[in-house]
Known about the structure:
Elements: H1 2-14, E1 22-24, E2 35-36, H2 39-43, E3 51-63, E4 67-73, E5 81-86, E6 99-108, E7 116-127, H3 144-147, H4 158-180, E8 184-185, E9 191-192, E10 224-225, H5 230-236, E11 242-250, E12 263-272, H6 277-298, H7 300-310, H8 314-323, E13 328-330, H9 331-340, H10 357-366, E14 372-378, E15 396-404, E16 408-415, H11 420-429, H12 437-444, E17 450-456, H13 457-465
Parallel strand pairs: 2-3, 5-7, 8-11, 13-14
Antiparallel strand pairs: 1-7, 3-4, 3-6, 4-5, 6-7, 9-10, 11-12, 12-17, 14-15, 15-16, 16-17
The structure holds 4-amino-1,4-dioxobutan-2-aminium adenosine-5'-monophosphate.
4-amino-1,4-dioxobutan-2-aminium adenosine-5'-monophosphate binds next to strand 12, strand 16, strand 17 and helix 13.
Amino acid sequence: MLQAVAKTLSVASTTSSASRGVLVCFRSYCKKTTTKLRVSEVLSGAELGASVKVQGWVRSVRPQKANVFLHVNDGSSLQSLQVVAGAELNDPLLTFGSAVEVTGTVKKSPHKKQPVELEAAQIHIVGECNPVDFPFKIKERHGLEYIRQFPHLRCRTNAFSSLLRIRSEAAAAIHLYFKDNGFVQINTPIITSNDCEGAGELFQVEPSSPEHVEDENFFSVPAFLSVSGQLHLEVMSGAFSRVYTFGPTFRAENSQSRRHLAEFYMVEAEVSFTKSLEDLTKVMEDMFRSATEHVLAHCVEDVDLFHKHVTPGHRDTVDAMLKKSFPTITYTEAIDILNRSSETFVFQTDWGCDLKTEHEKYLVKHCGNIPVFVTDYPYDLKPFYARDNLDHPQHTAAAVDLLVPGVGELCGGSLREERLGLLRARLEEAGLEDTYSWYLDLRRFGSVPHGGFGLGFERYLQCILGVDNIKDVIPFPRFSHSCLL
Ligand code: 4AD
């Protein structure tokens, strides 16, 4: 330790004051053991009186006559650690955005806003930052749209670092829900040879190397980035009664809308031995509640930043969502509600039409601005795997969507057609019998009634935080005509 300090001192004494990156105040207590801590650990107050080292980025600098005050943040919490240093430790390179390593003693703070502060003995400037060129300015609250222009730097703002901590905690909460409820996690493939949704929104995968023979597929069959892990989960649901997957999915939708991405994360679950759609809606509702309550309890300050400053008033919407159980209406009832309303819709609302975002938002409002399940969609609107309700004259499939405030569709799911004859007939009709012969096998050998759903993870974050644009809830958004970094 003493050796290291002596080396630092010699660096300080041989460099000019303008270029020196190291400022040292040699104090006797440097002989004490110094523990490296994260800012959140120091702020917890457990290390009062200890000699600690903190590494992070400067969020504010306030030079005064006798002292210089810094706020240092390392991403471990929204709050920064106040560092108090003697004026002799000030340096022109100690700017907003610069990276520093501070060694000092944890003291009780005289200020009400923070429990502790760090009395600095030594400040090492690890990385300089020119505040004139840096796109974010000290003390300014930049909007999400502005910071979106800097995907390589926006994690350094309070709002986006809060978002990333919430996102990480929400993902952990979802895994926890499934673990606590006996689901086995399956890593479904990212490269696949099937188009689960049959919507043709696929990205094809081929090597970029010139040695690649033009007319031959690398995998000998056309291969794509997965639009959904559902069919692979269905394979597993023939041996495990509860499975889930949580990974990236890809859709070549030519959309720049506020709720579509070309790469997004989907949580998908599949449950065997289901009796009705209620077996699925229960899992969807329980997962939504448990993840949301977990996030609200574990990310108090980060969520507050959104609910107070970014999307004021949204907390009331979230509380209302958690208070009541989610109602269920059928698609046919939904169409009736839309046709009875005085609202003018752009898109048609005849029975058999797909529900558009405007319809979904209206239905959510109509049901009290809380999440609502819509079940039993027209058979012809749903992919081949959806279970036939065998009803007449309005032919429907046992499919369900969960619509939520501000976003519209959050989850899509269905019971799966487990009856071999019906499934084979539908695949034959679509000319897909050979492609999906393995899927028919699942119905030949020990088939059971089963079903599942997928939840768009980014839309979930939009829903609980009230964020309008999906591009603001994913670290690196990919959408048509944009793949930055
Ligand atoms: O409704 P979808 O297409 O359902 C499926 O893919 C099923 N195979 C899932 C299953 O049953 N295992 O997609 C599920 C959810 C949607 O409700 C939506 O929240 C989200 O995925 N989603 C998107 N999110 C962002 N950008 C896009 N382009 C999305 N497309 C769907």
